[in-house]
Amino acid sequence: MRALSALRQNYGFCNQNECRELSAVGQRCKQKVRDFGLISPLDWSDTKNYPNVLIALWGRKTLAGPNMLNKYLVAVEGSEGSQRALAHAIERAKASNAELILAHVIDWSPYSFHTPEELSARHKRREEELTRARDVVLAPIMKRVEEAGVQSSSEVRHGKAAETLAEMAIEHDVAQIIAGRSGESGMSTMLFGTTPSKLVQISSVPVLIVP
Amino acid sequence: MAYRHLIACSVLFAALASPAFAGIDDTINSITAPIAALVGQIVFFKIPVFGAQLPLVVLWLVVGAVFFTFYMGFVSLRGFKHAIELVRGDYSNPNDAGEVSHFQALATAVSGTVGIGNIGGVAVAVTVGGPGATFWMILAGFLGMSTKFVECTLGVKYRQQNPDGSVSGGPMYFMRDGLAAQGRAGLGRFMGTFYAIGIFVGALGIGNMFQSNQAYVQLNTVAGGALDGFGWLVGLILAGVVFAVIIGGIKSIAAVTEKVVPFMAVLYCVFAIIVILMNGAYIPAAIGNIFSGALTPEGVAGGALGALIIGFQRAVFSNEAGIGSASIAHSAVRTNEPVTEGYVSLLEPFIDTIVICTITALVIGTTQVAAPGFAGDATGVAMTSAAFERQISWFPYVLAIAALLFAFSTMISWSYYGLKGWTYLFGESTQTLYKVIFCAFVALGCMVQLGPILDISDALVFLICVPNILALYFLAPVVKREMNSYLDRIKSGEIKKYSH
């Protein structure tokens, strides 16, 4: 229990539920949870057998700042997994009186190849993508969050999903990232991993993956 | 020119209707050969200098490139590192994510220039100008970097936003608006119009017929001559695919090509280096030939100057510096500093000519030392292919696919350059007409012999470098001011790198 209260104090896990989830990680992981300071992204092999509790504990020094406790970054898209993550985030925000930052990432790479015609229309396309993301993806979600009485803001960015979410988490100084489990499978997942698994590996704030 | 070709086109389609398919290629050839010779004579008006025939346009390009190299203070050397930092995104504002990046603009422009010229053009240069032509090609590539720097900076600076939100840029715009700003509005309009005509007619040559012709030649070579007399068929298929992309708007084909082409370019370079290493014992001799041949070539008409002329001609044909096409491609980038795209664009002749052309030249050069006369009478892509085949028997097949893809991506890029010239003149509404003409020429390119094709392409493309370089002289002070102001702001720390 001492470990759990330490977690709560230092890492911004705000309610009992979260701490219980942590303690359910299992015997080997419990040991790690107790000396959570030792857990680094390299230790993920230990928790992979418990897919519904993927909480990265790789802490930053700044993790315990005063603004930390009341901001969560929620990764949102159109998928069902993302809806479940949102529902979870709303519950959590209500319980801890936290603010949600709804982040949507449009897949884009500065190193992709295009025809000259596509490039000439790129600026316009980008505007359209941003508008569409705000109107179609974010608007209904923001409404839902508002109806639940939770304070929120939203942001759309272009980039690679995991990297961009990790960057945004640092910029907004959030306590943790909440994302849905992706339904991805198959060859590319075996080779490159899924967005959530990558997020877990690169993020410098705790990540909660909602199944 | 276009008019005459349109006649040639209609002859082609009339001939298609008749059952005498096998004679089509010959018929087309006999029609185009004299036309090509005539155009070649006009554009490549030659002046005899010390026993060599120096075409005026080549002189025009060399003088321009040398001038810009000195005027911009050897930006090709001093700006090289900064160019790489820009492409890497060190100076890209994260808030602009989703806009065209420097890398994308460069990659698109490079896939427009890396084409058959890098495989076949080098072989032509070496055949006509001896190994020494390679040296002059590399030098021309280096000088061309400064020309590109100037023209691409101007392309971004004077680009315009179309009503539909897309952007258009290129020499016709910087001629019209740049010269108008200097109080030479009439001259600017005239040159802009001249250039626009030149680029859309020229696009049918260098960016079209030459490409489809060489792709067909290489296909025919690996097919063991089975496609002899079927140039029209290959041409029609190619034209059909180009039609599907530029008129049918089938993005997937273009998307696949744009992804595969860089991969093929890397693959080509890797295998070329492997072949060069397999010919390892002959590398010193081949490099020696390049240098000795540059100054004292044997059996080259016009001696060193003859080699220089051929080298420069092929280099410009390959990297397009001074022609202004890259200025169109680069102008889509999103930046507040036009000069940054100038820096990025100087990497283009470097990649195209100094790296890829040199590699091809070494493949041919080492093979020539090892087995003189290995290619028989073959020249162009067929010669390069033979050089590869000596070491890697199956590589001609890969080369055929690479050639086809290079040709295809170059055609797509050039269809856009030509289109920009066309819409500058006639507006957006007649786009489809231009695109149909473009496709007809793709088919035509497979039906004629390499000689006349090369003459026509060279002539048309070199013609547009005349107004382009002239405008660059007028506007070079603008670029220099931009560059100096930009460099000052980097020095003072006003323009900063974004941490990554």
Commentary on this structure:
The complex is a heterodimer of chains A (211) and B (500). Chain A has 211 residues and is α/β, with parallel strands linked by helices. Chain A has one domain (40-210): Rossmann fold, CATH 3.40.50.620. Chain A is built from nine helices and five strands. A five-stranded parallel sheet of chain A has the order 3-2-1-4-5, sandwiched between helices. In chain A, strand 1, helix 4 (80-96) and strand 2 form a beta-alpha-beta unit. In chain A, helix 7 (161-172) packs across helix 9. With 500 residues, chain B is mostly helical. Chain B has one domain (2-92, 99-492): Amino acid/polyamine transporter I (Up-down Bundle). Chain B is built from 22 helices and four strands. Chain B has a two-stranded antiparallel sheet. In chain B, helix 13 packs across helix 18 (347-370). Chain B is globular. Residues 1-20 of chain B have low confidence and may be disordered. The interface between A and B is medium-sized, with 26 and 38 residues.
Shape of chain A: globular
Report the mean per-residue pLDDT of chain B as an integer: 85
Mean pLDDT level of chain A: 72
Q: What integer value in Å does the Rg of chain B equal?
A: 22 Å
- Envelope shape of chain B: globular
Q: How many E strands of chain B?
A: 4
What would you report as the Rg of chain A, rounded to the nearest angstrom?
Answer: 18 Å
Judged by helices, strands and strand pairing, the structural class of chain B is mainly alpha
Name given to the CATH homologous superfamily of chain A: HUPs
Output the CATH class name of chain A.
Answer: Alpha Beta
In the CATH hierarchy, the architecture of chain A is 3-Layer(aba) Sandwich
CATH superfamily of chain B: Amino acid/polyamine transporter I
Low-confidence stretches of chain B: 1-20
Helix content of chain B: over 70%
Instruction: Give the distance, in angstroms, between the N- and C-terminal Cα atoms of chain B.
Output: 52 Å
Q: How many strands, what sense, and barrel or not for the largest sheet of chain A?
A: 5 strands, parallel
The number of distinct helices of chain A, counting runs of at least 4 residues, comes to: 9
User: How is the CATH topology of chain A named?
Assistant: Rossmann fold
Question: Biggest interface between protein chains, with counts per chain?
Answer: A-B, 26 and 38 residues
